[in-house]
Amino acid sequence: MKSQANPQNTSAATISERATRRSLTDVFKNWELLLVVLIIIVVLVNTRLSPYFLNAKNISRTSSDFMEIGLMMLPMVFIVVTGNIDLSVASNMGMSASFMGLLHNMGVNIWLAALAGLALGTLGGVLNGYLIAKVKLPSLVVTLGTYAFFRGIAYGFLGDQAARNYPAKFTYLGQGRVGGSLIPVSVAIFIGLAIIFGIILHATKFGRHLYAIGNNEEAAKYSGVPIDKIKFSLFVISGFMAAFAGLVLAARFGSTRPDNGTGLELAVITATVLGGVDIDGGKGSMYGAVLSLLLIGLLRFGMGLVNIQSQVQSTIIGLLLIVSIFLPHIGQRIAANKATRFRWKTVLAVVGIIALFVLFFVFFFWSRAPVLAEI
Amino acid sequence: MTDQETSIGKQVPRQKLNLLELFSRFREVGIIVFIAILVVAVSLRAPSFLTINNLTDILMNISIMIIVAMAQTMVILTGGIDLSVSSVIGLVAMMVGFTLSANSGIPDIAAVLLGIALGAVLGTFNGLIITVGKVPPIIATLGTLSIYRGLVFFYSQGTWINAFELPQSVKLLSKGKPLGVPNLIIIALLIAALTFIFLKFTRVGRNIYAVGSNADAAEFAGIRPQRIKLLVYVLSGLISGLAGVLWLSRFESAQTNSALGFELQTVTAAVVGGVSTSGGVGTIPGVLLGALLLGIIQNSLTLIQISPFWQLAAQGLLIIIAVVSDKLISKRIVRSK
Amino acid sequence: MKFRIFTIASILMVILSLGLAACGPQEEATEAVVEETEEEVVEEAPTCENYVLVPKNLGNPYFDTGNVGAQEAAGELGITVLYQGSATADATEQITLLNSLIAQNVCGLAISANDADALVPTGQAAMDAGIAVVTWDSAIAPAGRDIHINQAELAGIAQIQLDMASRLAGEDGGQIAILSATSTAPNQNAWIAAMEEMLASEEAYANLELVETVYGDDDDTKSYNEAQSLFTKYPDLEVIIAPTTVGIAASARAVTDADLIGQVFVTGLGTPNQMREYVKNGSSPEFALWNPADLAYLAVYTTHALATGEITAEAGQTFTAGRLGEYTVQDDPELGLNVLLGLPFVYNADNIDDFDW
Lengths: 375, 337, 357
Known about the structure:
The complex is a heterotrimer.
Chain A: H1 2-5, H2 16-22, H3 24-27, H4 31-49, H5 56-63, H6 67-81, H7 89-105, H8 110-134, H9 139-158, E1 163-164, H10 168-175, H11 185-203, H12 205-215, H13 217-222, H14 227-253, E2 255-256, H15 264-274, H16 286-305, H17 310-336, H18 344-374
Antiparallel strand pairs in A: 1-2
Helix pairs in contact in A: 4-16, 6-11, 6-12, 6-14, 6-15, 6-16, 7-8, 7-9, 7-14, 8-9, 8-14, 10-14, 11-12, 15-16
Chain B: H1 2-15, H2 19-45, H3 52-77, H4 85-102, H5 108-131, H6 137-156, H7 168-175, H8 183-201, H9 203-213, H10 215-220, H11 225-251, H12 262-272, H13 284-303, H14 308-336
Chain C: H1 2-43, E1 50-54, H2 61-77, E2 80-83, H3 91-103, E3 108-111, H4 120-128, E4 132-136, E5 147-150, H5 154-169, E6 174-180, H6 186-201, E7 208-215, H7 220-233, E8 237-242, H8 245-257, E9 265-268, H9 272-281, E10 286-289, H10 292-307, E11 318-321, E12 325-328, E13 330-332, E14 336-340, E15 345-348
Parallel strand pairs in C: 1-2, 1-3, 3-4, 4-5, 5-14, 6-7, 6-8, 8-9
Antiparallel strand pairs in C: 10-15, 11-12, 13-14
Helix pairs in contact in C: 2-10, 3-4, 5-6, 7-8, 8-9
């Protein structure tokens, strides 16, 4: 299809999609700028819609709701840049927090328990890393397995019990604010860590190696990148950060239950990808990811303030995710296709597809009307 | 174990199996061995495991998983993934449920066709985003996972379809036993057989493998990868739509959270069954065995009275062991060759 | 590359500083407004009319029925009650939602909690902001709310389920099993503990033997499978008690599908529409439940009474809740301050057609 649209490209077909995708940035200059524009729009619209939006106290309170996602997103950016994925983060977070809770219930000192939780989470990362880097299983497969395994261990630890009554000096981590300011402790920690992770990704050899692996693992291997070591360490870091996010969540809740944080892995991946990190690896930036977290947070908060239903909120985030990749591409395609001749076949296909969707929604509204009328 | 190794060893020179075929063949044997060990161990602990009733239960419980895993397998073979299947099932079950409860006298076959058509439209949407919009499959279907689920809520406004609102014949669609075995099991095996034939004996089916192993090479060979990709997502939606109607029939209800989380089960069945997530490798018998393994694990953990709190962990661990042991064995085979 | 980073960083800095500059004075202004409104609340109490009914999750008929009662109460009181919940029954999501409601300075929240402990800090934040916090259906621990609306006494719920089980098992008793919701659901766990205690201590239930408690996670499929494996494991099983609306319907369907009607009976807590078929086909001849519409109706009345200062969060305070009559705030060592709705209602073939929800 591509070669039809642009015949002189046929010889370069092997470069394939990667080249296409990189040129997206030409359309919108760059992804991060697009995100900044979106954030400004969201802020402006929300300020108009709700008088409660630009209230520092409210923003402060709601910002800590997104920090666990943020903390797990930082290593996820690394992992996705190398073309891998970690589906087990939220389960690992539940496992580590539950272990800490179990020890706390047994009367162990809270800091010792927290340390043990961190150790267990890191160990979970070691398991992932070993299976991916040493046994050479695909990361999707491994973390799909540990996704169930880690969450299962969390249930095993606490069962139907909760861990509660954490001391105030611990819950400060999730509920406290820095000094006399309105900045939540967890947000301050996140910003600090985001800077460190950003520097590692953008200004160190390690970071360059991550992009090299993501762009072409074979080529990276031959140019001497220690691929196995790097992959292993990525998943260990991810395990550690998931455990740390678990502690922050436990501190914010002031309690732990084994199902805490179920499903957050999808939020983490959404934030990463919306930040412009290419799921196929090799492309993306830390500031893009942080901006997308900010965008999602502000969008969710704003939609909550005008009482949009949660399901609709997820639908909107889902649409944003697709549209953010879809639209630039279509735009670029149309721009590139200006010269191509008018083809009846294409028109028919487009009309047919549109008719299909119209028919679907006609049925959608027709079929639900009688049942909803009964209520 | 050694028997199987030698038999494979014998086949090598005669049929000139390439490495990938060897791997996938052995994979099935590995799962069979794993299932056999599990069955023996469990039936020693819990004699009720090997009763007709219990085995029928296991098959009933994995039937819908098998059906959707077929769709998932075709998608993964092209190097993609379809995470939206669970939301397609939920949305189709809800829409067909509404239609059935509001209009009496709809023949069952029409309900099934309606479900298939609705699913196909949803699948087409996935396929278009992925092929025309160039959105990576995992992202596209992650997005439609929440979009379609949002549509379920929007469509039903929170109303559920309950057992008494459904015609009896629709419920019997999955549970009737005209052939002595519940229909659902037969339908699942039929779909599996059709998929097997489609992948193995039709040109389009073989092209699916070709696109998954190397899209560029396939393009040079005259295959249009984008069309094949579009096709598998349409098929995936279509099959999930069928599964949606069967879900409605089996569980006699459509709820806003029907099939929530089911997508990972279908991916797991395919992956445990030996389908490579990078595309091009995997067989239908393997996936069937993968689904069977999952079903047996789930059923037996309850029967041998493992604390419900530890069941999920045991399930996860067994999946990891299955995948790892399989990989290690295949590595050794490759080395010895 | 480097240049780009700098450009973006500087743009970000500018935006952030603009944002902060905009936030700074605004914040003082808004806070001043907040304080003013709070004072107003105390002085001119009846002006407060924005309330929110928060279910465990949206798209659940049980809570939707509750909303019917809540809207009835809202009409009578001349207030608005918004019905707003998270997509899934998950504490993390519910907290995010509650934060956005607190930010809107609503007058009162009537919450069904997804996690008794995790919601305590959020509940406290709401109370600190001057919002009346009442829980219904599922409580937040006492520190995180003012008053809980108790649908039925723990003992009452446990007893009515055992009574039904005992009737269904017949004179000679037999094996019973419990199919619960998630292993972390606070309601179900409390009821199960109470049932276990009564089984062990009370003469009337001496011939009932509880063989196992399993968890269906309030997931239809899982509950169905758990019920199936109960039949397999215990061929002599007589009664399944499912103290959850999802579990009871799934169990009754499993009994029906397995042709065990008349051998295994299902009872517990369910809703009329879900159970109608199974009451009529005999797989679940009777089950109990309070009326969620009444429960939410009472919750809205209580929240309103608290927010307007008609009552304070103390034991012994009394108020009238529309058609339900007079209620007194009680104190309980475990439940904290609570208001008791009344006894659960037993649904059976004789009365089920009077209900449609």
